[in-house]
Amino acid sequence: MKFPKGMLEFTEQESFFRSPIGGLWMASIKFVLCTSGDSVKVYSTRTEEWLHSLQGHTNQVTGIALNPANHLQVYSCSADGTVKLWDFIDGILIKTFIIGYPLFAIYVSEKHEGIGFQLVAVHLPKSAEQEVEAKELSAVSRHISPNPSCTAFGREGQYIAFARNLQLNVYFFRKQKTYSFSLKATDKKGAKNAFTCIACHPTDDCIATGHEDGKIRLWRNFIHKKEYTYSTQHWHHNAVNTLCFTPEGTNLLSGGIESVLVQWQYGTGNRKEFLPRLGGSILHVSTSSDGQLFCTSHSDNKITVIESSFKVCGVIQGLVKGDAVLTDLMIDPRSKALVLNGKPGHLQFYSLLRDKHLYNLDIVQQEYIYEAGLDQFEVVKAAFDIKGYWLATVEERGQKSSDLEFFLKLWSYDERTQSFVLNTTITAAHTDRIISMCFSSSEETTMLVTIAEDGQFKAWCQGVDDQNFWSCDFVGSYHNLKPTNCSFSADSSLLAVSFQEVITIWSPDTWELLTTLCQPPGVIRDLCFGRLSCSKYLISTTTRNLLCCWNLLTCAFPPRMNIIIIYSAAMFVFKPNEPRPLFTHKNVCSEKIHRAVFVPREEPLNNCDESSQWLNRSQLYFLTQNMDLLTFSTATEEDRMLSSSTRLVIDDSVAVTPFYLLLGKHRQQQQKLNTPSHQAADRPQQPQGSVTITEEMESSEQEMNSEKEEEDSEGEMEACDSQQELRVQGSVDEVTPKLSKAQERELKRVRKTDFSWMAGLIASKP
Amino acid sequence: MASFKPTKVQFLPKLGEKVTEDTLYWKNYKSPVQIKEFGAVTKIDFSPLAPHNYAVTASTRIHVYGLHSQEPIRSFTRFRDTAYGGSFRGDGKLLVAGSEEGLIRLFDISGRVALRQFTGHSKAVHVTSFLSDGFRVVSGSDDLTFRVWDVPSAVELSSITEHTDYIRALAPSKLNPDLFVTGSYDHTVKVFDMRSGSSVMTMQHGHPVECVLLYPSEALLVSTGGRYVKIWDLLKGGQELVSLKNHHKTVTCACLSSVGNKLLTGSLDRHVKVYNSSYKVVHNFDCDASILSMAVAPDDEVVAVGMTNGVLSVRHRKHKKDKETLTSRRRRGPSYRVFVKGKNFVPRQDDFLVSKPVKQYLRKYDKQLKSFEVSKALDTALQTWTRTSKPEVTVAVIIELNRRGTLKNALAGRNEESLTKILNFLLKHIFDPRFSRPLLTVGDIVLDLYRQVLHQSPVVERQLQRLMEVLGREAELQQELLQVLGILDTLFASLTPRKEVLWEEHCPMSLNNHCVSVSSVSADVCRI
Predict the structure, then answer these.
(1) Residues of B with Cβ-Cβ distance to A454 under 8 angstroms
(2) CA angle, corner A345, sides to A344 and A347, nearest 5?
(3) B248-290 tens-digit pLDDT
(4) Res A327 pLDDT > 70
(5) Distance between CA A578 and CA A567 in Å, rounded?
(6) In this predicted structure, what is the pLDDT of residue A635?
(7) Chosen from B1, B3, B369 to mutate, greatest number of chain A CBs within 10 A
């Protein structure tokens, strides 16, 4: 079996600043830069829009630093061993320095400026710091912490301070000497003294250090090794993640896991201001060069822009990076947005089409306590009904401990506010954890079925005795077996519930047990009915890596349908009638794939190549372990995307004028709408500022068209997906080749498996 | 930046009747005024004229009361034996009453002596009434006859014997002076037309009829008897419309409210029930003794109920005026003007709007939770008023503290007084299925924290003893419930032998879990 290579490729969806370390720089009052994968993204602070990205590195960008000599230029360093100098407003690469070692951080000092002359502190894998002067490295120290915020340049670049564990080192360039100061491992009170971050005062000889236990120490007089002093201030109750002095040095900003930005007044002891509840834990703080704006980056993939008066004035939000995606990837049928876990206790709606975070829906509705090790409520399950009018969520707390608390909540869509509002909270839906749930897919009555570890499945209905809320309609069980999954057929006339190794088929109208299907050995893991013309098929996967397809009617000629199985790094596409896979793709990506979802396309592609035909109606999105969102795209699509993206860059690199601000958003939207069609490439480029009314009208037409197409393609989403996670854990490099072999073997086994038992079963049925 | 999210208090829906307009209307009565009569009150009739005095027939006399007086305005005492069925004429000037000895007396409302006496019945006359022309009186007697008398000449116009048992119910038509409805202990209800001189319609009630009632439109007829109240459609030839069985003893009386024509029935089971237009019970008045008679004043001002123990209970309607006098005593808050100040300002087109952040008002415990003062927040939630009238708030704060992992800190370091407060709360609410889970956790933590010092305080020790007792009792109860559940399960299983899946009740299953935790805590208490 050979498949043409290069037909299908992975393109990476936006997930900004993949590497959260050192990735944020406030360029000026107008722009904020952050690293994102192998590029640097430029955002506007006013409109919170993504302007463009600086692309050119071949590996992950690990650090960026503003050129102190020219505030319109920025240095970026990457793990590919190069440092690049960019003009970030126009997005033009000015210079490339090849260093030859993977770089882990970059620090730039003003004093050593000159043409082609900058100071770079490099962390090598062997953890030595080296100084680059026109491609000549000179090692400063070998004791560098892998944490890049543990290094900083001092006043006017006279010294460099770096810390590792319990030792603070200061290297003076003039004297070519290193002084080191160390703290005791533990205080009497059991405090942890390890350094976590360093900041140097811009005009004073003062180094601020943050510590593991939340203390901030201000070191002075360190020029003389014996006479150094430090003062201690303590507010954070956990490690200080980042420290930053304002450009004038009047204030010190600090942040940590508590998600509170603290502003300490320099030199006045204990006076401080707080900005609480910013989002995820603060990873990085940066100030604009005039001190008017601060910005913080958070662990949940967010940048907050804060005025110097301590008011939040903007939020740039990417795909929220939660701790884990416990809910599957889902598609909101109404907005076609991707829905998954976001902020703790929230569901996020992420538009794939516009590649933009839409909003967070607060599910738990409780104050989030930023404390390490606290057992929080998490949204573990969510399901939409077919029209997107109802959303069911399950939140859970106490997964680890014995007393499990969980709530089943039902949300209805409010047309007026354009969001979901809470309709019913069910406190004790089951006596044990809810494993899975699904909505019936019929148009007129909505019904929710939940299955739980207490061996029961329950059907919930709305509007029993004329009330608006939901209540239990039916409780069923099967021989006290533990249910594993459930699924409604396409017309909602059948409900399949799998109990361990048995599939039971129920009629939701009368709640009669219609039939039971016995699975070959192995506990059933996933269960799914076919859609459209394949609605008579029921597909199940077992823990023994077996995929079974049941025909619920007599065996007729099976039409097209696709099943995707994703093992940890390989993917198989099947037709239901053939045991041989239609398409395989090994080594999809280096990380383990956790979830996958089919997203209906705006308009079906007319790709006649058999191996990629299954992508015609919908796109497949993957979520990997590191919360990277990937998708499959065909070669033709790729070309189109490239052409349109270059256009975007040119358009957006124009300076931000008020007129642009007015029309910028609109234009971007319009261009993104154009991307799927061929028109975008053909259309002559309009000069900036001459956006005419005719064009606007055109775009509105475009929008209307696409809406229609959306309606057409709605409900035509064929295929169903099911994923499997491999249980083998290990480092990525080791596993990948081994896995592919394992998969191959598995595949061979599947091919060899005798399917006669299945034929017998089908034949036996009337 | 998100604002502080206040503690979510879980309000669980109350079981039982829903609150509707009708229930609110009928709840709006003052507590009853009790007037003691000499014997069982058999009949109450309101005068149709403006002051709406009412005649109460009890024992050997008829008292006429004013709407708001507790002393009779007038009493008619010239009866040698028990009087029955005193009722007003349509102009409210004459009153007619039967008696045990078979005499029917007619009184002028302002006089004292009977104007007329009708003799002819051989047995007790229980029901008398004027026909709607006001010149004739109809009476029903235990001698199985009913007779029509002429008022001016005091002669008997006709006597009809169609019933085969005592006649105990009578309702003249208000629209037609020749029509009236009678009910008898022979289980029938008959409609008579004086023009034909015989019954024109007969309905089988099925039980001895105690009372008949015509709707103002006279298309519907109500008959009560036995435990049943039946509504008949006269226009469809006496077809039974509804049969109501809401009382568990004989229904003795029925009447209609004048607002909305709601049906009220009173019964020997000491309840007055109010039905809505679709004949669902919307309200229930409880009385001290079996009810024999009942009447509602025009505009529903007064509901008067007569009982077997000779007590007349009169309920007056509450009015808004009464309420105002109550509220005026209370301290008045800031005036409306203060709240709307500047809020109704409409900006002009060229005004530049500077929005003011809306201030978030938090409860006291939320403020304390916001600043992480956990012990204080628990104290606030345990304040007497909150604890007694809104236990769900207290429990919500406890749940919130538990979620934050600081419940132990909040419970620690308390003195005897505040510990008794917590234990009292536990004693009161630990069995409430809504609260038991968090409160059991509290119990566990309290025991863990104060194990060493418990013996120093006799008060706390006594409370723990009580807690142990009630927990033991609860555990036993749960055990019994589980046994019942087991019995039910086998019954269900035997009922549906071929079905593989059982229909199970949802609620009892949750008991199981609950029971285990209760017993674990009670075991804990025992150890101490």
Answers:
(1) 509
(2) 95
(3) 999 999 999 888 788 999 999 999 999 988 888 888 889 889 9
(4) yes
(5) 19
(6) 57
(7) B1
Query: What average pLDDT score do residues A369-398 get?
Result: 85
Choose, out of A306, A367, A406, A516, the residue to mutate when testing the contact with B (most B CBs < 10 Å).
A367
In this structure, what DSSP letter does residue A758 have?
Answer: H
Q: How many helices (H) and strands (E) does chain A have?
A: 6, 54
Q: What is the mean pLDDT of residues A106-128?
A: 49
CA-based nearest residue to A740, from A585, A626, A624, A542: A585
pTM of the model: 0.66
- Calpha distance B206→B260 (Å, rounded): 29
Torsion angle of the four alpha carbons A436, A442, A447, A450, in this order, in degrees rounded to the nearest 10: -10
CB B526 within 8 A of CB B482: no
- Predicted confidence (pLDDT) per residue in B170-221, tens digit: 999 988 888 999 999 999 999 999 888 888 889 999 999 999 999 988 889 9
Task: State which residue of chain B sits closest to A426, comparing Cα positions.
Answer: B12
H or E element, residue A574: strand A571-574
The one-character DSSP state at A403 is -
Q: Using CA atoms, how far apart are residues A48 and A45, in angstroms rounded to an integer?
A: 5
ipTM tops the 0.85 cut: no
In a mutational test of the A interface, the residue from B501, B503, B515 whose CB has the highest number of chain A CBs within 10 Å is B501
How far, in Å, are A51, A675, A680, A699 from residue A669 at the CA level? 13, 10, 13, 9
Q: Find the helix or strand (DSSP H, E) in which A435 lies.
A: strand A434-439
Among chain B residues, CA nearest to A375: B403
Average pLDDT score over chain B: 85
B404–A375 CB contact, under 8 Å: no
Rounded-to-integer distance, Cα A305 and Cα A293, Å? 7
The tokens of B435 are what? Answer: 């609260």
Contacts of residue A83, defined as CB under 8 A and 6 or more positions apart, other chains included, come to A75, A76, A77, A96, A97, A99, A103, A106, A118, A120, A132
User: Chain B partners of A375 at a C-beta cutoff of 8 Å?
Assistant: 403, 405
Residue A518 Cα distances to A501, A504, A512, A515, A548, angstroms: 7, 9, 18, 10, 11
Q: For chain A, give the number of residues.
A: 766
Distance CA A61, CA A105 (A): 9
- Which pair of structure tokens corresponds to residue A437? 């749930």
Beta bridge partners of B213: B222
DSSP B427-470: HHHTT-TTTHHHHHHHHHHHHHHHTTTGGG-HHHHHHHHHHHHH
Residues of A in contact with B500 (CB under 8 A): 478-479, 513
Question: 3-state class of B382 per DSSP?
Answer: coil
Q: Are B61 and B28 in contact (CB under 8 A)?
A: no
Q: Could you say which DSSP state residue A395 is in?
A: E
3-state per-residue secondary structure call for A461-477: EECHHHCCCEEEEEEEE
Distance CA A280, CA A681 (A): 40
Low-confidence ranges of chain B (pLDDT < 70): 1-2, 13-17, 321-333, 496-528
* Average model confidence (pLDDT) across chain A: 69
Over residues A111-120, the pLDDT tens digits come to 554 333 344 4
Q: What is the pLDDT of residues B70-79, one digit of tens each?
A: 888 888 888 8
Residues of A with CB under 8 A from a CB of B: 275-278, 312, 365-369, 371, 374-375, 377, 397, 403, 425, 427-428, 431, 454, 456, 472, 475-479, 513
Which amino acid is it at B141? Answer: S
Q: Is B431 left (phi over 0), alpha (psi -120 to 50) or beta?
A: alpha
Residues of chain A contacting B3 with CB distance shorter than 8 Å: 277
Q: d(Cα B147, Cα A430) in Å, to the nearest integer?
A: 70
Question: Tell me, what amino acid is at A261?
Answer: L
